[in-house]
Structures are given as C-alpha cells and as structure tokens.
Fold:
Amino acid sequence: MRYRNNAPRHTLLALALLAAIAYAALHRPAHDPEGRGGGQPAEAPSPDHALFAENLRKPVEAALQDRYRDIDARHFAGALPDIPVHWEERLSERGKDLPSGMGLEGLWLMEDGKALILVNPRLREDEAALTRTLCHEMAHEYLFTRGDSRSSHGPPFQAVLRRLWDEKAFTGLFATDEERAELRAWLDQRKADLAQSEEAVGLARRAVDEAEGEFSALNSRIQTANERGEGWPSQEEMDRTTARRDLRVTQYNGLIESRNGAIGEFNLKAERYNLILAYPDGRDEERVAAMKDAPEPGP
Structure:
C-alpha cells in the first residue's frame, strides 16, 4: 500500500500588509519674514516643504510620467493637469507606523497651488502596485482640480476610487471594513487550525514509520525462515502486522489529503484578502491617525 510521504504541494500564502499611500496638502502661505499677515505670526514651513521643493526642481522620468498620462487619458479623459511624478526614496522612511511598516508607496503634495506626485522606487518592479498607487494619488489630484482639497479619503475620494476600480484601472478588491475584518478572523482561525493539523500529520507519520519498521522486521524474519526452512511467523501475526501498517498508511494519507484541501481553501481566501488589502483606499493611514489622536486610557 502506498502512502504520501511528501510535503503538501500547496504553499501557504503570506498575508501581505501593503504599504500605505497618502496625500498632503501643504497650503503654505507666502513668505512673511516679519510675521505680519494681519498681526498673525508667520506659519512654520511644513515638514513636506523641502521634499516638495526639491522634487519640483527635478526633471521628470519619461517612463513614469507616461504612466501618469496613460491613466489620465484612459480614466480621466485627459483632463488632469500634467503634474510632475517622481521616484522618491525617502517615502520608505515615511509611514513606518502604518500596518505594513514599509513606508509610503505614494504621496500627493500640493503647495501654493502647485502639485506633484511622489512614488516609492520599490514599486519599479511591481506594475500592479505602481498602477494602484498612481490611481490613488491621481484621485487626489482630480478632486483638487474640482475645488475639493479637504476630503482626504472621505466619501468623494472613495467614489472616484470606486469608479476607477469599476473601470478596471487597477487590480484590487473592494470590501467593507466588516468584510475585511471577518475574512481576517477566518484566516487567523484557519491558520491556527492548520498548525494543529501539522502536529496531527507529524504524529501520523511517526505511526507510519513505526508500522513500517514492524513490517520490515517481519519480512526479515520471513526471509530468514525461508533460508532455514523453519521458524516462520504465524499467519495471524503476518495478517495483524500487515493490517496495522495498511491502517496507519490509510490514516496518514487521509490527513494529508484533508490538510492539502484546507491549505488550498486557505490560499484562495488569502489571495482574496491580499486583493482587499491592495485596494488603495487609504483607510489604514486614517485608522493609524485616529489611534494617535485617541486619548490615553485613564488609571
């Protein structure tokens, strides 16, 4: 009787926590070194000001700018201003308190009526993530051109993003917070179940090895008896040893088949969850901001 002694062919998908994408409207006032401005002190420059100013002076990379223009033509009827789009390594240092811990993937910046988009260079080799990021930041630009610079990731932004998703501008999967939480809870529980399944498979494999050892020893005794012409095991012993080996192999194969089926189901759900995480709604960023603003618990 044959048994499956190989590792399962399915591999558990990592539950990716995608990096966040963001926007920042700087609205920096004109320079007022004496702090006049109607008796109000001069507003301190935004921490994004240097990032904005440096990139505004840089020449654009043609290939990246063409990606922006292509999305604009396909999904915004070519109506967006041709704002600069730049790779910016420093985004990897931004947003590390977000769930991914990998920094921002993109950032829309606006200052004194001028705007630009920054993209993390690690997306150079990830076409899908680059497209999602550009769509997210271009949604901010679209709203700004329509006079909305304050909606952040609220309903107007989500409506634009949903339209882009409906038009298949990017890959991802729309889901409510409740759907995402429910799926994540299912994955966490199933991951724990699979860990227990691994233990059961390990125990079953040891039982198979033990039965195989007994079966091999029995065969050696039969071979020796054949050479001597005497001392054969009883038929009852041979039947009992063979039946025990076959039963344990059957049990082991059943566990392997069940585990592989569970892993396959887990992989499908994990793929769905990763697509939900990939949907560039910016909500993780706002959740972290809300957590930071929450009051500390009392004593």
In short: The first helix runs from residue 49 to 57. Strands lie at 20-25, 85-87, 104-111, 114-119. Residues 10 and 178 are 29 Å apart (CA to CA). The chain has seven helices and four strands.
